[in-house]
Amino acid sequence: MLLLAVREVRRPEKALNWLTISLILPIIGFGFYLITPNPVRIHRSRLTSPR
Q: In this structure, is residue 51 part of a structural domain?
């Protein structure tokens, strides 16, 4: 990703922006993955009736 950003982008500020975004977005996405509940577990717990 570093080589692509430096090679394709002419201005260094733009390359730095692309690198920053490409490094931060996966971290934010993984955080959302950990925060959101698993829909399979929710449906299974609602479908079972207490006895």
A: no
Q: How far is CA 12 from CA 7, 20, 22, 42, 44, in A?
A: 10, 12, 15, 47, 51
Average pLDDT, integer, range 17-37: 89
**Domain ranges, residue 14:** 2-46
Residues in the chain: 51
pTM: 0.52
Determine, yes or no, domain membership for 15: yes
| Amino acid at residue number 31 | G
Share the mean pLDDT of the chain: 76
Per the structure, how many domains does the chain have? 1
